[in-house]
Amino acid sequence: MDASGGGYDPRSTRLLSFQAALTGFADGSDSPRAYLERCLETIAARESEIRAFVATNPEGARKAADAAAARWKAGRSLGPLDGMPLGVKDLYETEDMPTGMGSPIYEGWESHRDAASVYALRRQAGVVVLGKTTTTEFGFSHPGPTTNPFDPARTPGGSSSGSAAAVGARMVPAAFGSQLMGSIIRPASYCANYGYKPTYGGLNRGGGHSSLSQSHLGLHAGSLADAWAVAFETSRLAGGDPGYPGIYGAGAGLPPARPPRVLARLDGPGWDVADDAAKAAFEAYVGCLRAAGVTVLSGADHPGVAALEEAIRPCSTNSMTIIGWELKWPLAAYREKGEGLLSPAIADRLAEWETITVEQYRRAVEIRNEMRRRHAVLRPAIDGFLGLPAPGVAPRGLASTGNPIMNVPSSTLGAPVFTVPLLALDGLPLGVQVMGYPDGDEATCALARWMDENRF
Amino acid sequence: MDASGGGYDPRSTRLLSFQAALTGFADGSDSPRAYLERCLETIAARESEIRAFVATNPEGARKAADAAAARWKAGRSLGPLDGMPLGVKDLYETEDMPTGMGSPIYEGWESHRDAASVYALRRQAGVVVLGKTTTTEFGFSHPGPTTNPFDPARTPGGSSSGSAAAVGARMVPAAFGSQLMGSIIRPASYCANYGYKPTYGGLNRGGGHSSLSQSHLGLHAGSLADAWAVAFETSRLAGGDPGYPGIYGAGAGLPPARPPRVLARLDGPGWDVADDAAKAAFEAYVGCLRAAGVTVLSGADHPGVAALEEAIRPCSTNSMTIIGWELKWPLAAYREKGEGLLSPAIADRLAEWETITVEQYRRAVEIRNEMRRRHAVLRPAIDGFLGLPAPGVAPRGLASTGNPIMNVPSSTLGAPVFTVPLLALDGLPLGVQVMGYPDGDEATCALARWMDENRF
Question: Which of A28, B69, B180, B423 has its CA 20 to 30 A from that of A246?
Answer without folding.
Answer: B180
